[in-house]
Amino acid sequence: MKFIEELREEAKKNIQKIVLPEGTEERTLKAADYALEHQLAEIILIGNKTEIDKLAQQHSLKHISNAQIIDPNNFDEFESYVDMFMTIRGKKIASRADAVALVRDPLYLATLLVKNGAADGEVAGAQNTTGDVLRPAFQIVKTMPGISVVSGAFFMVFEDQSVGDQGILVFADCAVHPNPTAKELAEIAVATARTTKAISGLEPRVALLSFSTKGSAKHEMVDKVVDATKMAQEMAPEFLFDGEFQADAAIVPEIGSKKAPGSAIAGKANVLVFPTLEVGNIAYKLVQRLAGAEAVGPVLQGMAAPINDLSRGCSVDDIINMIAITSLQAANKF
User: Fold this and answer.
1) Is 273 a member of any domain?
2) Domain co-membership, 162 together with 289
3) pTM recorded for the entire structure
4) Dihedral (C-alpha) 4, 129, 185, 280: value to the nearest 10 degrees?
5) Where do the H-state alpha helices sit in the chain?
6) pLDDT tens digits, residue range 130-182?
7) Is 1 a residue whose pLDDT tops 70?
8) Backbone angles phi, psi at 328, to 5 degrees
9) Which of 48, 79, 182, 261 registers the highest number of CB atoms within 10 A of its CB?
10) What is the mean pLDDT of the chain?
11) For 141, which DSSP code?
């Protein structure tokens, strides 16, 4: 698919260092081998070197030797990372022994490497839950300035190139935050605009969705979207935001021009921001299954450094794509 090919090619232009804490997981190793062979990224694997080497030989992975391998049980800088973790967590860590135990966890050590600048981004989740991946991220890396909430965007890729821009629509939040306030929804809209620009290069036209278009219905949930739209416009005037829109008014030109005449976005949106997580999650799965769109993501956004979570059912290609996406986020400082 053209979008995937372009992602990977863009990642090659500004090589970043990506840490993979699940260094002994088979799909992760295969993805790392591909990334190294095709120079998508520099790779750090966390795990026992002997086990990694054995698995690489077993699966005929010829490029794993080019990865940096860090074993939490045999790492010269381990104590300095324990010190760093204790400084970050402060009184929330009861003792140094507790800190040592957590830093030996590859997910915590990987996040500390990102925080310290030893890695530019992290990809995990092939064998760990979302909660386990995000917990150290929230504790150590935290959110970027001006953003208080983490969210997840999907790039929905269609064969029909007339959909969105070049067959791409971006959906958010479909993965993380159940019921954002107006301010949080505005932050999600801004973060999604930045994600769209950083990863696809498209100029985002962000529609904030509701069951109402420009006052056609009255409800507190509509008010939330109206308020969020105004806040997003003030937070990031360099991007186009408009709402509230019903979905058809956002993406169908004929309907958009009738329901919201004069809008720069109505009927032409390439980014759709949903009012709640349940709406976004249902929408992306329906579009994926019924329209045959490929859902690339979720791309986590709002973190102070790029940390992305995989599905435990992910494929090798999914991991490769997320390595490329994380590299693009890091290269664009988002």
Assistant:
1) yes
2) yes
3) 0.90
4) 60
5) 2-13, 26-37, 49-58, 78-89, 96-103, 106-115, 130-136, 182-200, 220-235, 247-251, 253-259, 277-290, 316-331
6) 889 999 999 999 998 888 999 999 999 999 988 999 999 999 999 999 999 99
7) no
8) -65, -40
9) 182
10) 95
11) I
